[in-house]
């Protein structure tokens, strides 16, 4: 099967898609969808729906169906990861210099706004395991935020799901989509398997192994591509608001892109030992490398590791 590859810059990274040449007409559809997602949900775009919500904290605001879905998924991941997946860390990232202008200059902290009284909710009460910074009234398509949010922890994975669904609705069942290390692929009956190289956490020119994906998603998290200053990076521990230092790299395989991306973020930032414990409760397979070069691989992470 003859393949063709094309790429664009979006979502803060390079997005590469590989398709059979017979499906090459689907490239504009996929890249258009990814660009739409960036325009609507990027914290770096002032005109995005996410930025508009962030500019109006402390009051109920109308939200799109897609925004409601992403916020609901974020709360679900928060619960399932014992609070290690948290989309309310935008201010902490900004304060460390990972802001819209990429200033990489540590700033003063920001005060959070108060919550509304519980009686203002027209939907179900706040559940104890939900972060109080986000309230959702799905019946009326409104949300309340008292902290700025950022979808960087699962935005690329969600975009993979959207693009792959678009391909399949249009008859594309053999594809490879790579969004800066977040990968989703599917093999058709007559197609070759997609073999994914697992990048070495200490040297991007080397690999620690390979894995084959078929109708699965892989997400890799490591700080080596986005580091600045004195050991700062963008992967923050949700409980300390500081860069996580206990892990070098993590690779997560899950059914969907949003799951693999979110769980890679959460488990990396949780730390080596907690990540191992949490992974056993989640629908994932995992390979994780600690800062001390300890390695854990779940039984179902079917990779060929190099010696």
Nutshell version of this structure?
The chain is built from seven helices and 16 strands. By secondary structure, the chain is of the alpha+beta class. The chain is globular.
Topology:
Elements: E1 3-10, E2 13-20, H1 27-41, H2 49-54, E3 60-62, H3 65-80, H4 90-95, E4 134-137, E5 142-145, H5 155-169, E6 175-179, E7 182-186, E8 194-199, E9 207-213, E10 216-221, E11 227-228, E12 232-233, E13 247-254, H6 257-270, H7 272-279, E14 285-290, E15 295-297, E16 303-305
Antiparallel strand pairs: 1-2, 2-6, 3-5, 4-5, 6-7, 7-10, 8-9, 9-16, 10-13, 11-12, 13-14, 14-15
Helix content: 25-40%
In DSSP terms (H or I, runs of 4 or more residues), the helix count works out at 7
Low-confidence stretches: 109-130
Which strands sit side by side, in order, in the main sheet? 1-2-6-7-10-13-14-15
- Average per-residue pLDDT, rounded, comes to 88
Task: Specify the structural class.
Answer: alpha+beta
Strand content: 25-35%
Number of strands: 16
Overall 3D shape: globular
Order of helices and strands: EEHHEHHEEHEEEEEEEEHHEEE
For the largest beta-sheet, the strand count, sense and barrel status come to: 8 strands, antiparallel
Rg over C-alpha atoms, rounded to the nearest angstrom: 19 Å
Query: Alpha-carbon distance between the termini?
Result: 32 Å
